[in-house]
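FORM 7B: Structural annotation worksheet

SECTION A. Query
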Amino acid sequence: MRLEGWHLIIIIVLALVLFAAPKLPGMARSLGQSMRIFKSEVREMKKDGAPEAAADSDAVEGRVVNHPKSTGAENRTGDGTDVPPPNRA
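SECTION B. Predicted structure
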């Protein structure tokens, strides 16, 4: 007797029903929740890639601003003003 693919699938399903029956509802719930999360993430990615989504967002132009007191390592006096004070009393 030779086992084919569908025979193995039936044996696996029967083993799951017999030995993992108490855990099946939790596994199905977890699988459903994972699928909902996956679908919502795919939907968000599609929405983010749409051209009208880029036109609707208010873009803010930014620039890097250096701290006014930090002018470089060569101008530091070593007085410790760049180190935060300890929190101990």
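SECTION C. Observations
The two ends are 83 Å apart (CA to CA). The chain has a mean pLDDT of 77.

SECTION D. Sign-off
Analyst initials: ____
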